[in-house]
Amino acid sequence: MIKKPTAIELSCLSPIRGTVEYFSAGVVYRHQGKNGDCNKEVGQKSLGRAGLCLADKVTTRKYQKGFASLPTVLTLMILIVATSVGITAISLNETFVSAGQNQSAQAYLNAEAGARDALLRIARNKGYNCPTTDCYAIEFTADGCDSNESCARIQVSTGAGTSGDPKIITSTGRVKNKIRKISVEVVYDASQNGQIASTAWSELTN
Fold first, then answer.
1. What average pLDDT does range 189-202 have in this prediction?
2. Residue 122 neighbours by CB distance under 10 Å
3. What is residue 35's predicted lDDT score, i.e. its pLDDT?
4. Coil, strand, or helix at residue 136?
């Protein structure tokens, strides 16, 4: 349909070649001339008395708003992804910390179990000793010492069991890369046929 632009539609006068641009029903018309008619059909040309009119279809305001909001949507998506990654990293870190704490606690229990085993041996034989480093071992899982999965290594000094020369048990518990070490000083009571009179427990930090 051929339409002549109204005064309201002629909203912008371009200084280039006397071109008048106006917006109507989602279409921008570039009207060349002063009083010529423009063809509203997109892509068609009509030659009016005042010159050539060209009509080009453009995006309506609805779609223009959609394009304008695209950077905002992308920014929000990036923020959501970054937040999710941060939460996941914190959760994983807490999981690793918790697992390490559990392994350390289990290593201490392994060391304690090793020390009690040595005390039982001493109770059965007051002269028992095993002075070399890591003299014997107790495995709490299959191949627990070879794989360092769960193990205790124990040594017992040659001390006389007196207050001045106590017999010392050193037990090292290990779970994976967590190591805890316990020392137990044993003193006999000579008046009670060499029975264990006291034990002093402490954790070694080196």
1. 84
2. 20
3. 47
4. strand
Q: Please list, residue by residue across 81-101, b when 16 or more beta carbons sit within 10 angstroms of its beta carbon and e when fewer do.
A: eeeeeeeeeeeeeeeeeeeee
First-residue to last-residue Cα distance in the chain: 95
Question: 20: how many CB neighbours lie within 10 A of its CB?
Answer: 20
- How much is the pLDDT for 172? 96
Nearest CA among 155, 166, 159 for reference residue 131: 155
**Residues in a beta bridge with 52:** 47
Residue 173 buriedness (CB in 10 A; 0-12 / 13-18 / 19+): buried
What value does the mean pLDDT take over residues 13-42?
Answer: 45
The answer to whether 38 touches 77, Cβ cutoff 8 Å, is: no
Q: How many CB atoms lie within 10 A of CB 27?
A: 16
SS3 category, 119:
helix
Q: 57 forms bridges with which residues in the sheet?
A: 27
3-state SS class at 176: coil
Q: Specify the pTM.
A: 0.56
> Rounded to an integer, what distance in angstroms lies between the CA atom of residue 167 and that of residue 186?
5
Rounded mean pLDDT, 115-136: 93
Lowest mean pLDDT among 66-70, 140-144, 198-202: 66-70
CA–CA separation, 166 and 111 (whole Å): 20
- The predicted structure's pLDDT at residue 54: 42
> What are the angstrom distances between the C-alpha of 186 and each of 31, 75, 101?
108, 69, 30
Residue (of 177, 171, 172) closest to 103 by Cα position: 177
Per-residue model confidence (pLDDT) at position 90 = 81
